[in-house]
Specification:
The termini are far apart. This protein has two domains: 39 residues, no CATH class; 150 residues, no CATH class. The chain contains seven helices and five strands; from the N terminus they run ααββαβαααββα. The chain is mainly alpha-helical. Helix 5 crosses helix 6. It has a three-stranded antiparallel β-sheet. Strands 1-2 form a two-stranded antiparallel ribbon.
Length: 191
């Protein structure tokens, strides 16, 4: 009976400490030290939440940079359905999707003869990635500049400015956040 009482008391004490006190303390520290990140890096525009810097969005207008394709269902960038397509490279469905994506990129910018970066035609493992490689962003510069009536160099310099380099100079690869890039484009339009 003493062992049972000790077990129940331990369960209650550790539940209170680890299930209530610790999470509240961590939430309080996160809210005070970096509230933006603790709240999901939400983008607020005109007092309204319009997205997050951590989740990609489907951009289809040729005057915007396009994100990586999303494999989530039933619609792209569905945070409740985070996943890749899980299709193997020889799967006919994947081959068809890749061919359609290549055709769409070439149709949107027929003057562009550069090789298409792989991240513009394949989805990420989560299907929610807001980043593309710098080469994928630079591949789209001419199309975006043409549709906005701007010089390619203006758009290219915006891309260069928004490249996020390797963390600590070692971890990861350089990337460009498409959400931030398109917000930067809209700010260019205002000026």
């Amino acid at each position: 009976m003493a062992v049972l009482r000790t077990s129940i008391i331990s369960l209650v004490v550790f539940t209170v400490i680890l299930g209530i006190i610790y999470p509240l303390a961590m939430t309080g520290i996160a809210q005070s030290v970096f509230p933006d990140k603790a709240n999901g890096s939400i983008i607020i525009k005109n007092g309204k939440a319009v997205g997050s810097y951590l989740i990609g969005q489907p951009f289809t207008d040729p005057g915007y940079f396009w994100s990586r394709p999303s494999a989530t269902t039933p619609y792209p960038y569905n945070g409740a359905s985070s996943s890749g397509s899980n299709l193997g490279q020889n799967n006919p469905d994947l081959q068809k999707a890749l061919a359609e994506r290549i055709a769409a990129l070439k149709s949107a910018d027929p003057e562009n003869t550069k090789p298409i970066p792989i991240d513009l035609i394949t989805s990420s493992g989560s299907g929610l990635d807001p980043h593309i490689s710098p080469s994928a962003a630079l591949y789209q510069v001419h199309r975006v500049a043409k549709h906005r009536g701007l010089n390619d160099s203006v758009i290219a310099s915006l891309v260069e400015k928004l490249i996020e380099h390797r963390q600590f100079g070692v971890f990861g690869e350089p990337v460009v956040n498409v959400v931030k890039l398109n917000m930067g484009l809209d700010e260019l339009k205002v000026k």
